[in-house]
Design goal:
By secondary structure, this protein is an all-alpha fold. The chain is built from 7 helices and no strands.
Length: 138
């Protein structure tokens, strides 16, 4: 009997983020390692090109949050960001990632949705980050 992989939905990713990741620095950092490994693949980099910067910002926000450097993120925000990353690394989602040319279209839509939904928190983080980088120059 062939075991079918369950399709990842954004709702499932959100539940997984809430139950397994938001309270676990180690699990969240393992997730970041997984997404960075995925993004090191040239084909994946090409396919996610339009939303690569958003993903990298999400990675930075998760890192700074769990390192305790930026704790101004509401729990809802960190949950949605982690859920978007979980969805991205799941190969079996609405459009399977192995389908060349369109496999990451749904992932891009999820990343864009989360990014747009959290624009105020993202803007605050960027402002904080710019201030931190300014301090490094002094």
């Amino acid at each position: 009997m062939v075991k079918k992989k369950k399709v990842m939905t954004f709702q499932k990713a959100k539940k997984e983020a809430e139950s397994d990741y938001v309270s676990s620095e180690s699990k969240s950092f393992n997730l970041l390692s997984t997404v960075l490994k995925l993004l090191s693949d040239p084909r994946v980099r090409r396919e996610v090109g339009g939303f690569f910067g958003k993903i990298m910002l999400f990675i930075e926000m998760i890192r700074e949050y769990f390192r305790g450097n930026y704790t101004e993120l509401p729990l809802k925000t960190i949950t949605l960001i982690i859920a978007a990353v979980i969805y991205l690394v799941s190969p079996v989602d609405a459009i399977p990632d192995f389908i060349i040319g369109i496999g990451f279209v749904d992932d891009g839509a999820v990343v864009a949705y989360v990014f747009n939904s959290l624009s105020k928190d993202i803007d605050r983080f960027k402002t904080w980050k710019e201030g931190e980088e300014g301090l490094d120059l002094k």
